[in-house]
Design brief:
The chain is of the alpha+beta class. It has one domain. It contains 1 helix and 4 strands; from the N terminus they run H-E-E-E-E. The chain has a 4-stranded antiparallel β-sheet, with helices on one face. Strand 1 and strand 2 form a beta hairpin.
Length: 126
Amino acid sequence: MKKGFSTVEVLLTILVGSIFIIASYGLYSSILKANLNSTARSKASNIAYNHLREITHKYRSLNCAILPQNYTETAQPGEELSNLEIVSTVSAPYGCQFGLYKFTVTVNYTVSGQAKTEEQSLYVRV
């Protein structure tokens, strides 16, 4: 009786190992893409929040009669997303008599070739 592995056993082991490695690579690629999307969305959300806080102070004294107003904001240093566009909107959704403004910031960006949007809103009584 010989000790060791036969050629068939070695080839079968290599085949099973190869399948495992290929499956692991597919899983790794999916995780990497999900991480990229999550990081970009987190950055966009932070950008939207920062601009939202800024515009609530900047446009608080607007004449209600001219609302809604759209403003294109410029990206600040450190706000690095592909095809970044920041649009702020100030409106009075319930009319001027209530003194309630709605501030909305929409961040449009691209990640992995797909257009994405992140939006944040805040109601402020003036």
